[in-house]
Each structure stands twice: as structure tokens, then as C-alpha cells.
Design a protein that fits this description.
The chain has helices at 42-61, 99-107, 116-128, 189-195, 203-212, 216-240, 256-270, 274-278, 281-284, 294-304, and strands at 10-15, 19-25, 31-38, 69-73, 76-78, 83-85, 111-115, 133-138, 142-148, 151-152, 244-248, 285-287. It is of the alpha/beta class and 305 residues long. The chain folds into two domains: 10-120 and 293-304, 2-Layer Sandwich (Nucleotidyltransferase, domain 5); 130-287, ATPase, nucleotide binding domain (Nucleotidyltransferase, domain 5), CATH 3.30.420.40.
Length: 305
């Protein structure tokens, strides 16, 4: 059965290190209400922020929200127990945090907790109407959500899809994971900001604009960045062989120019390998629509499932 937004109704919260984005989905999958609030760090701050967004969604929807709430968060998530750990960007470190139970008590409704990239992968499935999908999030870091035969693949330790920590350059930069030369040190928002610092506005937008204007330094930085994204796509294609690969995340707000350059890099990678070229990875690649809250919508789908 192919995934679809039609016929679902739910509430989803995407809790990130800087903002929390909440949505209410209608029966046809349309977004009926959405709210953004700054996220307060720490366990207490995360719970309080979620409550604030939930109450604002209820006001925007014109009534109480009694349905189950799906919550997407960064870090290692045990969805069965509703536990969160190592969510450094949220100020949650160390021991398991019983986030599901804390939120359920505060919101007064059942709650389901999922890794944010995994949640976004479910929404990506619905967008492209396929059941074998890799969602590649190019944000502050680099990670993938995997859906195989319509089911999330989380892995034994919740680490499936951590493609950003695949080493590709032994002489590269140290990675926050403790390894050297990981893809995340090349193809992530953090890496891009280091390579192309800008005083105002998103570095990715500034880089792609400068490259489009013919700046040789910008072109070099852009090409290396897009090579890194293409390398992640190649690795995922060779290991998962999904029907579709969907790009999302904060850097993907650059839009079509990002997809075009990643496609160009994929085709270049395939020039010396008839085998790789035969896989047609470039033809499987698409992007989340601009400004679409894919992680929040995915969290609502988590609740609906």
C-alpha cells in the first residue's frame, strides 16, 4: 500500500534546537494550522515550548486538539519507550529522558516520539507516493531517514541513516563524532558556513548566488559541497537502492539550484562507471517543496500511524 496524506488527521511537532514548528493536518492532508516558536533548551524548556506551541495550534484551529500528537526530535530516540538521549542541540545529554511521558502529562493527550529525520522521511514518502524512499536532510548536519517497504528502518541502535558520519577523506577535518573526514564535514550547513562565512543571511543562499554570478572561489566551494551531497546520495543508492531519494533540510531551501548541481555531480561520478551510471540515481532525486514543513507533517503522520 502506498503512503498518502489523504485520510489522515493529526498534530505534529518538530522540535529543533532553535525553533519548534507545529502543524495540524486535515483529513485531506492539508495543513489547517501551523505555529513556530523559539525552542527553550534543556528538558524543562523543550517540554514548555511544546506546550506553548500545542496551545497556540489549538487556538489557531478554533478548538481543542484531543487527538494523539506526534513529536519529532533530533538525537537518539527509542520510540517504543518514548525515550530521548544525546540530543545535544536541545541541551539534552546523558541519561534517557522520558520525553513521551513528560509531554503526554503536560499536553493531556497521547504522544508518540520519533527521530525528526525519520518523521520527515514518512512525509517524503507521502509527497512522492512511494514506499521505498530515502529522505536526505542537509541541515546543520547530514542525516538520512530510511523507509523500506513502507516501514521506517531505525536500526539496532537507532543509528540507521547516519550517513553524515561516513568517512570519505582521511586527510579531512575532524568530525564531532570523533572520526576524521566524514561527509558531514563537507556536506552540511555547518561545513558550508565554515567554508563560506557570511555576515548576513543564510550562507547557502549567499554561496549559490555568488557561484551563479561567476565567482571562482564560490564555484569551488559550491562544487565541493555538492560533491559531498552527491556522494551521500551515491552511498545511499548503493546500500539501500530506494525507489526515490528526496532532499530536504535547511540548506535545501536554496531550491532547484541545489538539485541541479547535485545532479551534475552525480552524472560526473557516473562518467567513469557504466555500473554507477546504470543505476540512474540522478533521475530518482527530487526535493521537498520550498518552505514545506516536512518534519512537522511527518510527526503528524507518526501519530496517525
Amino acid at each position: 500500500m502506498r503512503a498518502a496524506l489523504t485520510g489522515t488527521r493529526g498534530v505534529g511537532l518538530d522540535i529543533g534546537g532553535t525553533k519548534t514548528h507545529g502543524v495540524v493536518l486535515g483529513e485531506d492532508g492539508a495543513i489547517l494550522a501551523q505555529v513556530r516558536e523559539s525552542t527553550r533548551p534543556g528538558a524543562d524548556g523543550v517540554v514548555a515550548t511544546a506546550e506553548r506551541v500545542f496551545e497556540a495550534l489549538a487556538r489557531e484551529s478554533g478548538g481543542s486538539l484531543g487527538c494523539r500528537v506526534g513529536v519529532g526530535v533530533p538525537g537518539l530516540v527509542d520510540s517504543e519507550r518514548g525515550m530521548l538521549r544525546h540530543a545535544v542541540n536541545l541541551g539534552v545529554n546523558g541519561d534517557d529522558l522520558p520525553l513521551r511521558d513528560l509531554l503526554a502529562e503536560r499536553l493531556g493527550v497521547p504522544v508518540v516520539v520519533e527521530n525528526d529525520v525519520n518523521a520527515a522521511a514518512l512525509a517524503a514518502c507521502a509527497l512522492v507516493e512511494a514506499d521505498d524512499v530515502v529522505y536526505l536532510s542537509v541541515g546543520t548536519g547530514l542525516a538520512a531517514g530510511l523507509v523500506v517497504d513502507g516501514r521506517l528502518r531505525r536500526g539496532e541502535h537507532g543509528a540507521a541513516g547516519e550517513i553524515g558520519h561516513l568517512p570519505v577523506d582521511p586527510a579531512g577535518d575532524p568530525c564531532g563524532c570523533g572520526q576524521v573526514g566524514c561527509l558531514e564535514t563537507i556536506a552540511s550547513g555547518r561545513a558550508l558556513a565554515r567554508a563560506w562565512p557570511t555576515p548576513d543571511g543564510p550562507p547557502a543562499a549567499a554561496l549559490f548566488a555568488a557561484a551563479a554570478a561567476g565567482d571562482p572561489a564560490a564555484i569551488a566551494v559550491r562544487d565541493r559541497f555538492c560533491w559531498g551531497v552527491a556522494s551521500a546520495v551515491r552511498a545511499l543508492g548503493l546500500t539501500i537502492d530506494p525507489e526515490r531519494i528526496v532532499l530536504g533540510g535547511g540548506v535545501a531551501e536554496v531550491g532547484e539550484p541545489l538539485r541541479e548541481q547535485v545532479v551534475r555531480q552525480l552524472r560526473t561520478l557516473g562518467e567513469g562507471s557504466p555500473f554507477l551510471a546504470s543505476l540512474g540515481l540522478a533521475d530518482r532525486l527530487s526535493m521537498v517543496p520550498l518552505h514545506y514543513p516536512v518534519a512537522a507533517v511527518g510527526a503528524a503522520l507518526v501519530a496517525a500511524r
